[in-house]
Design goal:
The protein has a four-stranded mixed β-sheet with strand order 1-2-3-4. The chain has a domain at 199-293. β1, α2 and β2 (67-79) form a beta-alpha-beta unit. It is an alpha+beta fold. Residues 1-18 have low confidence and may be disordered. The protein contains ten helices and four strands.
């Protein structure tokens, strides 16, 4: 009996304190003219540890299964403990059967203002607002967790999106960068992901990754067909919702990958998908023009 109790305790500790994120935080303070201040290095270290040591889900993952997320914080101004910055989030997940990764997010948040005292504790709660630094970083962690889960299971990211939405609800009245209007709004991104109006996107997102990318090692022709069909569904939704944040975030993350998929050595024509991509995401015209027609 004693051994069973000890085993249960070990399992509880093991699963209760699992880490799912492999995060890297980089802070660029050149624009402040105060790069010699230790607070920048301290913040970089503390944020990295906060993300990597926190248990964001109930999963227990091997190192190679963890989601890679990079946070690039460019500080424009520092006034005592008040930071004015921008935040670039890049995240990826592995492609099954290969040593390659697929980009989940490549997003710039230009309105990232927060207060931070050197060495202050960074604590996250999903049921209350702590501060804008913790809320914003935690929000994007859960948004990425949701995208990753959606890529492996149809609508698998719902719980993570709901947590991100809860963070947004708590933060709107007290933090900056949470306004509802505007295509750059954090709130818009998560509201779209949990909206029934975007169910088609989430189904296509799963098809693109799990039935498409993850199957290239086994049947490249069928996998490419799945990718094409999923893109057509996403493009169709994008045409009806031209100001969609989710559609823009998708193509910002996937433009280079899509170019690679349609730049293979086969002789089939890609003119149709090329035209569709040009129509819905013209900002990436440079990539689309390189697709083999």
């Amino acid at each position: 009996m004693r051994h069973l109790i000890l085993l249960f305790f070990c399992l509880f500790v093991h699963f209760g304190f699992s880490q799912e994120i492999n995060a890297n935080v980089t802070i660029d303070a050149k624009q402040t003219g105060q790069t010699q201040l230790s607070v920048f290095n301290t913040l970089e270290t503390e944020l990295t540890e906060f993300i990597n040591r926190n248990s964001w889900t109930n999963q227990d993952l091997e190192p190679h299964q963890k989601i890679d997320i990079s946070f690039f914080i460019t500080v424009q101004e520092l006034n005592e403990t008040n930071f004015t910055a921008s935040l670039q989030i890049q995240a990826s997940r592995p492609i099954f059967g290969t040593d390659q990764v697929s980009s989940l997010m490549n997003y710039k948040d230009s309105n990232f203002m927060f207060s931070y005292n050197e060495y202050q504790a960074l604590n996250f709660s999903s049921t209350s607002y702590q501060n804008n630094l913790v809320s914003t970083i935690s929000y994007y962690v859960y948004a990425v967790l949701g995208l990753d889960a959606d890529s492996f299971e149809e609508k698998g990211g719902s719980d993570y999106y709901e947590t991100a939405n809860q963070i947004a609800d708590f933060s709107q009245q007290r933090g900056s960068g949470w306004k509802k209007s505007g295509s750059q709004s954090r709130v818009n991104l998560i509201r779209e992901l949990i909206s029934a109006n975007y169910n088609k996107f989430r189904v296509a997102y799963y098809q693109y990754h799990r039935l498409g990318l993850d199957q290239f090692y086994e049947d490249s022709k069928e996998a490419k067909l799945q990718v094409t069909e999923s893109l057509k569904d996403i493009i169709s939704l994008g045409r009806s919702r031209s100001s969609s944040t989710v559609i823009r975030v998708f193509f910002d993350a996937k433009a280079d990958e899509i170019l690679q998929i349609y730049s293979g050595g086969d002789d089939e024509s890609h003119q149709e998908i090329k035209n569709l991509l040009q129509d819905v995401a013209p900002v990436h015209s440079r990539s689309w023009r390189q697709i083999k027609s």
